[in-house]
TrEMBL record:
Name of protein: FHA domain-containing protein
Domain of life (superkingdom): Bacteria
Keywords: Membrane, Transmembrane, Transmembrane helix
Transmembrane helix recorded as keyword: yes
Spans through the membrane: 157-183
Lineage, highest ranks first: Bacteria, Bacillati, Actinomycetota, Actinomycetes, Mycobacteriales
Length: 193
């Protein structure tokens, strides 16, 4: 039996050059194109139990590292409610998180999921492993312009790795209850990722 090597996708981050996303059946690795020693690795160390790209949403069955340092993940179960798709990552005393926005996109935050004023931007995982990003823009809040945070290279790599490993987006409860138009198509699209 021949095992294929990892799939590689190059993504232009628009703010920090090109990031390479390397995916295999049980791991995701992200690194800048210019420096593959600076990387984030997320590996499944247990059995495949979920349809997400990595194959599990069980934190006990996942090992994650940022440049060799521990990356602690709190992973939602990925069931029914959008909040169950949230992921919080902690490294070096910092938190970053993914919070589903809609059926395709996930908001990437500098902090925990409730810290919406610290939005880096939105990730969308596409077929073939590409991760699209829309970086947050400055916005006016109570007559004051709020500048979004700019991720460090490590935060950038963590965000891309989380999106590639666990997927993006989630169905809202309203869509599920109402049996929204295109629900079957949306579910089939998510399962193909």
């Amino acid at each position: 039996m021949t095992t294929a090597g990892p799939e590689r996708t190059a993504v232009d981050t628009l703010i920090s050059g090109t990031v390479i996303i390397e995916r295999s059946e049980n791991s995701v690795r992200t690194f800048p194109e210019s420096d593959d020693s600076n990387s984030v690795v997320i590996e499944r160390i247990g059995p495949r139990t979920h349809k997400c790209p990595l194959g599990t949403r069980d934190a006990a069955a996942v090992s994650a590292r940022v440049n060799g340092r521990e990356l602690t993940l709190t992973i939602g179960s990925g069931r029914l409610f959008k909040r169950n798709y949230r992921i919080v990552a902690e490294f070096d005393g910092r938190f970053v998180s993914l919070r589903p926005k809609d059926i395709e996109a996930t908001t990437y935050l500098n902090g925990k999921p409730h810290e919406i004023e610290k939005e880096f931007g939105e990730f969308t995982l596409r077929a073939g492993g590409t991760v699209e990003v829309f970086w947050a823009l400055p916005r006016k809040v109570l007559h004051k312009t709020v500048e979004p945070p700019v991720p460090t290279v490590e935060e950038l790599l963590v965000g891309y790795a989380l999106a590639a490993a666990f997927g993006t987006g989630a169905l809202s409860l309203t869509t599920i209850v109402m049996g929204g138009r295109g629900l079957d198509d949306a579910l089939m699209s998510r399962d193909r990722r």
